[in-house]
Amino acid sequence: MRVPVVQHRSRRRRALGRRALWTGGELLVTAGVVLLLLVVHELWWTNREARQGAERQVQALERQWATPGTAQGGPPSSNSSPAGGSSPHRSTSADGSTSADGSTTVTGSADSATTPHRSQAYAILTIPRLHLRVPIAEGVSKQNVLNKGYVGHYPGTQQPGQAGNFALAGHRNTHGEPFRYLPRLRLKDTVQVETSAATYTYTVDKILPQTSASDSGVIRPIPRSIVKPAYGYSRPGYYITLTTCTPEFTSRYRMAVWGTLTSTHPR
């Protein structure tokens, strides 16, 4: 009976094969752990960090506005409106109607023509339906504004309360994701913008569920989609535009929520 002889060369090949498989397995496990950590960082840590920073900024603005004689958190305030002066205790309406308390109302109330410094947080956005209260900063820089969990104001569009379009952008996912639930907004929902001068209330009256990322018409002074012209306005007014990416976890398309200024309450 012949006894099989195992050559040293065959043993070495098998040992090398096992070592290669083991090394490959370790590399795959390491890659999987690194990928998991990246996902955790993007979906959890960036949200946690940005939300905490945004909350601190909101509190800082509130303290700043509540302290008499300190520099304001936004552009210099103007207590006059396009249609005439308004008392600090009066309620103003965009349609020029009379408020329930009998105070005189005016058509619109511009905060100021002065533009805040780039990346400066100068206002607070509140959306009751979304339980959202977040700072508004000048510009839409990812690093200096959006990734901090703030909502960014499109440069070149109007400021709160001014005639035209006050246009904002915010992340849908990661970095605080303030606009994650923007699709939950419905017609007649309210959106409030607080500044050092006043609180402006806009009422949602139009929603564009999806359009091209390059649809610049949605943030024009008279907002109207150039991709889907059936969506938008046809005459001048006092508008707000909220934009974000859609669908979730992509940046292929944009959605827009539009509202019209319905009341102004000076501080």
Compile the SSE list and pairings.
Elements: H1 8-66, E1 80-81, E2 84-85, E3 121-127, E4 132-138, E5 151-153, E6 164-169, E7 190-194, E8 198-212, E9 238-246, E10 253-266
Parallel strand pairs: 4-5, 6-9
Antiparallel strand pairs: 1-2, 3-4, 3-7, 5-6, 7-8, 8-10, 9-10
Verbal overview:
The protein is an alpha+beta fold. It has a single domain, classed as Sortase, Chain: A (Beta Barrel), CATH 2.40.260. Helices cover 22% and strands 26% of the residues. The protein is built from 1 helix and 10 strands. It has one helix at 8-66; strands at residues 80-81, 84-85, 121-127, 132-138, 151-153, 164-169, 190-194, 198-212, 238-246, 253-266. It has an 8-stranded mixed β-barrel. A hairpin with a 4-residue loop joins strand 3 (121-127) and strand 4. The longest helix has 59 residues, at 8-66. The N and C termini lie far apart (105 Å).
What proportion strand?
25-35%
CATH architecture: Beta Barrel
**Helix and strand succession?**
HEEEEEEEEEE
Q: Could you tell me the number of beta strands? A: 10
Radius of gyration: 27 Å
Shape: elongated
CATH domain topology: Sortase, Chain: A
Percent of residues in helices comes to 10-25%
Quick tags:
single chain; about 270 residues; alpha+beta; Sortase, Chain: A; eight-stranded mixed beta barrel; two-stranded antiparallel ribbon; 1 helix; 10 strands; about 25% strand; elongated
